[in-house]
Amino acid sequence: MAFQCQQCGECCSSMGSVISIREQTEPFEYRLWFTTTLEERQVRIDPDKRDLFSSQDILAKRPMACPFLRERTPGAIICTVHSTRPDLCRQYSCFRILVCNRRGERLGRVMDNLKYFTTMDHELRTVWDKEIAPITIADEACWEEEVERILSAAGYRVLH
């Protein structure tokens, strides 16, 4: 079954640590900075979301949210730059953990609420199979912390 966004906002609620606004370049245009890759990107607030963008209410509930995430109606959280969103956002598919190299390039991911891991990177697959797959920690948060510890020690960056 293809992924369908439920507009829960969970995916972007911690992206404020990855994406920040470098400067406003036009009334509704911004230059972004990616803290993981040190890249910059220009985005524009979608015309139908400009009024919504002026509200900062979501930051009180989700202080680490992407700077362009807004709550349209209670429970419906959307991206205000959806038309010009960065490639990282365009390539997104629900993941529980995203594994990147030191340059911020995506190498693998753990899908949704499962512990299913996918990667095309041989070295990362070896780390997963030898060190992470055998982990039997029942508590999900503790399991994620251990996965992050192992991957970080192996030189990877972990987003979740």
What is the topology?
Elements: E1 19-26, E2 29-34, E3 40-44, H1 50-53, H2 58-61, E4 69-73, E5 76-79, H3 87-90, E6 95-100, E7 106-111, E8 117-119, H4 122-132, H5 140-153, E9 157-159
Antiparallel strand pairs: 1-2, 2-3, 4-5, 6-7, 6-9, 7-8
The number of domains is: 2
Tally the helices. Answer: 5
Structural class assignment: alpha+beta
The helix content, as a percent range, equals 10-25%
Morphology call: globular
Keywords for this entry:
single chain, 160 residues, four-stranded antiparallel sheet, three-stranded antiparallel sheet
Question: What does this entry look like structurally?
Answer:
With 160 residues, the chain is of the alpha+beta class. The protein has 2 domains: 10-90, no CATH class; 95-159, no CATH class. The protein is built from 5 helices and 9 strands, in the order βββααββαβββααβ. It has helices at 50-53, 58-61, 87-90, 122-132, 140-153, and strands spanning 19-26, 29-34, 40-44, 69-73, 76-79, 95-100, 106-111, 117-119, 157-159. A 4-stranded antiparallel beta sheet has the order 8-7-6-9, covered by helices on one side. α4 crosses α5 (140-153). The protein is globular. The relative contact order is 0.14.
